[in-house]
Design a protein that fits this description.
The chain has 176 residues and is mostly helical. The chain has eight helices and two strands; from the N terminus they run H-H-H-H-E-H-H-E-H-H.
Length: 176
């Protein structure tokens, strides 16, 4: 079945991961095919020369988990944890780093970030599994990627409903 460009890019990234997909985009067709063959050998867990649905599912889950771990590491470094050799980071550290540019005394000076801040703080509190006000790297990963954390399911559902509720009436109507 032919894919449009959007489908191709999505499939490419799901199969290879963001970094590898970009790397493969710059290879010659011959080199790309050779390297994909090597990857397929890794995916073929039973060594039968083919890739079944379960092997492909496991591979894509592995790639997604690797992407999440790499993103968590990068964000952790950016949010002061790694730079200061901290085991945990506080909401205030995160908020200052992400939203520190906002002048609370000038609400008319631009976009109102209050909704984003409140939403992030609510997610932060949910990710803080021991309720100590600080997130470990594992808790921070749940904060960044709640869709991959079983304890964060209710936050994902709530945020999805809020995103769909365009008129902010607390309900989803047929048009929304």
């Amino acid at each position: 079945k032919p894919h449009d460009e959007g489908d191709y890019e999505y499939d490419h990234e799901a199969f290879l991961g963001d970094d590898q997909a970009e790397y493969f985009d710059n290879l010659t067709p011959e080199e790309s095919q050779r390297r994909l063959g090597l990857i397929c050998d890794k995916i073929d867990l039973d060594g039968d020369g083919g890739i079944n649905q379960e092997e492909l599912r496991r591979w894509i889950m592995r790639v997604q988990q690797q992407e999440i771990m790499e993103d968590t590491e990068a964000q952790w470094r950016d949010k002061l944890g790694e730079a200061h050799h901290l085991e945990t980071i506080t909401w205030e550290m995160y908020k200052d780093h992400v939203f520190g540019f906002i002048d609370d005394n000038d609400p008319e000076g631009g976009y109102n970030f209050r909704g984003m801040i409140d939403r992030d703080e609510r997610r932060w509190r949910k990710a803080d599994s021991d309720s100590d006000g600080r997130l470990t790297k594992v808790e921070f990963q749940s904060f960044l990627h709640p869709e991959n954390s079983p304890n964060m399911v209710d936050i994902v559902v709530l945020e999805t409903l809020e995103d769909m509720d365009k008129d902010n009436d607390g309900a989803i109507n047929e048009q929304e």
